Target: Response regulatory domain-containing protein
Amino acid sequence: MKRLRTLLVDDNQAFLALSKHLLTPMDGVEVIGFGYDGFDAVRLAEELHPDLIIMDLVMPGMGGLQATRLIKAQHQPPQIVIASYYDDAEHREHAAAAGADGFVGKNAYEQQIALFLSNRGPVVG
Model:
């Protein structure tokens, strides 16, 4: 089974550590790098060619929506899941409009990311 090469991007280092802790034991998931803002996400997407990026919505400098738009314009872009505490219909719609393949609420992150990974399909709407 091919491992899902995953890039984690969030300005909160504690959330990055938690996310890595939750993802590492999952079958088929490999965390290949970390970024701390949208600029890192765009650069690392080009350098590392991940299969999946799990990215925060709101970060200093460049947020997750702008980074999603730029990454999705790349050749063979990865799937992108936006993770945010702002888990409401409006933010989910903005994520979908930016091209995100999924949206997970940070308050239920463990369950929602596991659901996304098991389906490997959109959970935006």
Residues 44 and 56 are 15 Å apart (CA to CA). The longest helix spans residues 13-23. The first strand starts at residue 4 and ends at 9.
